[in-house]
């Protein structure tokens, strides 16, 4: 082909590519930067809705940060079946509607951070069957409503740090079955019963800096196969009866550095299979009665706590928290009251000089009296038996 023909052909192909770009180049929203058919950046583009129809259907990583999305509608990303990572950080999101992320079978990582979102609504994340990590930090979330994460059976990590959450509602985490880690913020004031119900496996959960009125029955119901659970640096109020009754198979349960007004009942049975209970650094304002404590665990650690060193101390040392060794217990725990011994190691005070409480003395006297009466009754019965035997012997001699 001569030189003129080559130039003509080149010009013809150039003309075609300019005149019909959509036939040769993939589509890309004007507000976005399509680095490839699998990676798209739509950051600070002023978008008011997801440009779903203009995105490459093969996109795997999609960033939609710092746009203007007040609402994430249901099925907002339907059709992006190859999407693996999605970021919606920095948007003005105030509502996530039910099933907003339905139709994303390959999505693994989802980030919604630094938004004004206040409520995680029911079924907001439902349908994300293969999701691995959800980041919801640095929002304005005040509550997580029931079934918000329904169906997220593969979720391994949920991060809710740095949110003003005050209440965890019943079934807030229902739908997660085997999760490695839940990261919650400080400042929680209410945990409703059955909040964690349905978690078949939980790797790590730390409940810290809470301000509760009490730990109530059913809070931990349904928690099974827990690797590490820590309740720490919180005002726990009153630990009410049966607070821990319905959790099982816990490797490490840690109650650390809390203020505890009173313990109405603390119950751990062998059937719950708690391996290690660590009760450390707590300030207990009222000593529980020994009969209200049942602690059947493989390993018990009770150290660096502060207890009242009053007349109830004898009940404490006779109970299961002392773990069978009064000497070891008083060497590793402290007094919180009376004021003159506050902060003093227990082994620095003369415990024998502290009289028992009147109710303990009365109870002891009643038990002793009961034992005496029982002994008297047994003796009377024995004497009656002897008299009866003597009577029969006399009858035998007469005959």
From TrEMBL:
Alphabetized InterPro entries for the sequence: Leu-rich_rpt, Leu-rich_rpt_typical-subtyp, LGI_related, LRR_5, LRR_dom_sf
Stored Pfam families: LRR_5 (PF13306), LRR_8 (PF13855)
Keywords: Leucine-rich repeat, Repeat, Signal
Annotated signal sequence range: 1-19
SMART domains from the UniProt entry: LRR_TYP
Keyword Amino-acid biosynthesis part of the UniProt annotation: no
Presence of keyword Signal: yes
PANTHER family referenced in this protein's UniProt entry, alphabetically: LEUCINE-RICH GLIOMA-INACTIVATED PROTEIN 1-LIKE, LEUCINE-RICH REPEAT-CONTAINING PROTEIN
Protein name (record): Uncharacterized protein
Organism annotation: Ceutorhynchus assimilis
